[in-house]
Protein 1
Amino acid sequence: MVSKLNNQEIKKTESLEIILDKLRKVVAAKKLKTSKQREDILTIIYNSKVHLSSEGIAVVMKNNNKHCSVSSIYRILQFLETYGFVTSIDVDKSGKKYEIASKEHHYHIICLSCGNIVEFIDNDIKNKQLEITKSLQFQLISDNLRLFVLCDKCRKKQKGLQTI
Ligand SMILES: [Zn+2]
Ligand SMILES: [Zn+2]
């Protein structure tokens, strides 16, 4: 059974306070300067109901009267991803979108036309993956399932396009 979920319905597995605390520990262990921007960006991603691109993060920062250059945002996102605070999804040629790593395991459906992302959880898929890997004597470590689609809105716009 597929439970189609809105972005905000995928449960987060840790509170923002715990995640920020972990970030501060990593920063201290690496002997880096503490940066309010790093914490701001992590907070924005945590609170966002959608997957954000670096440009999207720049817009939110600006709306909150927080200045951060796009190149700093790139650098911070790289840091946050390297240390497992956020994960990225390659959407299309428009680039990556980010979400908080501490979320229940889920899959993504991505519209190739508008880049909209829908998340879902499906235990049948999970069980099938375990069954396949086990039968081939592998231990499943992780998976990353993305379904590329044309959403309803974009399909209506592109009437006449061949579908499978
Ligand atoms: Zn679309
Ligand atoms: Zn997601």
Protein 2
Amino acid sequence: MTLQRLAVLEFLEGNTNHPSVEEIYRNLKKKYPTLSQATIYTSLQVLRKTGEIQELSIRKEKTCFDPNPKPHHHFYCQECKKILDIEISCPVAEKQWVDGHKVKEVQAYFYGICNYCLKKTKNKRRIGGIT
Ligand SMILES: [Zn+2]
Ligand SMILES: [Zn+2]
């Protein structure tokens, strides 16, 4: 395994923020100034192909990466722009077959407002005396 791939894996390990290539690059640059964004992207693609990480297209403007290779779903908050893991059981992911088709990857994207942002707006309203 190359140094770049190790650095990328090390950064992603235990990271639940689903960072984009730019975010990974910005963080790794501090520790490894010689790394380029293109090398990081190539490393991410290799890790994705070997099944060590997942690539998410939940954010239309940028691709994000997830170090958790197990099938799970994602929620995108349109307020704070966070990507959250959704822990619901998915019958397709368990059976790996749907209508006779072999499923290799399962990704469902949910869009909306996260519970943190919902609480925040509720509190704001209460302070403002609207409710
Ligand atoms: Zn939110
Ligand atoms: Zn995830």
Protein 3
Amino acid sequence: MFARGARWLSETGHKLNFPMSGLTQEALYAGIDMELSWSEHQLPQLERTKHVHKLHPYLGKFIPQLVEVFLERHFAPGTCVYDPFMGSGTTLVEANAFGAHSVGCDISAFNCLLSRVKTTQYSLGVLELSLRSTLEEARQAGPAPTDDASPWMRRWYSDRALGELLQYRTIASAQLEGPVHDVAKIILSRAARSARLTTHYDLDFPSKPAPRKPYFCYKHKRICKPVDEAAKFLARYTADTMRRIRDFASVRTNKLVEVIHADSRTLELPIQAQGVITSPPYPGLIDYHEQHRYAYELLGLEDRSAVELGRAKRGTSKTALREYIDGMTDVFTNAARQLAAEAPVVIVVNDSRDLYPEILERAKLRLERRLTRHVNRRTGRRAGQFFEDVLVCRVAGSP
Ligand SMILES: C[S@@+](CC[C@H](N)C(=O)[O-])C[C@H]1O[C@@H](n2cnc3c(N)ncnc32)[C@H](O)[C@@H]1O
């Protein structure tokens, strides 16, 4: 075990949350939970993005294996896990595969759609036939007129790509309904993400559309052309989505999964949960609505970013941090109120500002262990090595 730690530490350039100087090696390793710190070799990207976990890109998700460990440590099959910051549904998917019921809540309508699509049980044959027929009809019809598209859409897409997306949207709405239509919406959103006028080196956080002409690509070190179509992405993601849903179906259980679009500060849980596994947003880092703006534009989803906690746009001023602490306190107080005393509340967060001692105290959560996890790798512009904490808490009993 220590050999693993030693290798990582020498590779990482010591980005630890606690002071290095004066610590013995043993003291250093003691602060890191080895079971949670996988190397790239032990846990390659393919495993971290297995089956439905990669139905659609999402910045700010935690890895499924982390959830697996905490399900094993603190929950039993048949119990119910609550995630007040459900995001792309990682906790729900893993809880289901583990054999637990789950409830997830998120303020972002797109994240709810994505989580629902990941966790729904489908009739696979019907789903595949329906998606293929929509794709084929859209291909035959060709691009739709783009005159009615929003100014945002016209700015971010070539005319042809936009026309193909709109055509697919129209045919999907006419042909499909219910959960099958929802899957088509995720395919459409993923294709829309790939078809934006962005440079290849700026897919995660494009701030403005790329020029509509060839450009020097820092990622590929050559001249690249901006994307001019969406049809190839629609076809590619239809096949990939089907494959991923099939893969998950082979490990899926029939346990209950509840996805709720709401503010978790005030949510009343529809069923009794036995504990929480979650990763809250962190102040000033990510705008969870804005990262999927194309989906909000295309699908007409309700935008509730005004009540999104910690959104990057609010920044990290004293006032923003105070608002964040109050908001998190409300979420965890509301969750704790609906759990039994001593229920586990597992919070994955990189609390570099040390905000959580106050949040936990005010929410009456008792910190049982603070585990430090080595995060081996992220992709895109966030690539790098760092450490994050897992706060393992218990709902405090009455005094
Ligand atoms: C760090 S992400 C969760 C990622 C998740 N663990 C996953 O693996 O996909 C935090 C989530 O909190 C959601 N959120 C922010 N404010 C919220 C609120 N008031 N109520 C519910 N969810 C909220 C954001 O929309 C975002 O999806």
Protein 4
Amino acid sequence: MNLKMECMCLQCGISHYIPLEDLSTEVTSGFEYPIVVNIFCNRCGGMLFVVGKEGDQPRYLVS
Ligand SMILES: [Zn+2]
């Protein structure tokens, strides 16, 4: 299974592509996206949240 999820850092905003099976997520009330609870940003150590599947058109991109 090669499905990867795009996870964005809450602090620095960079995206990480993490295999779905490595992710453990938690839904927080008041936040639209699932929060990743077992993996943190490798640049700043910030929390990540799941934006969507890799290859999906991200909603923050304007074409
Ligand atoms: Zn970060």
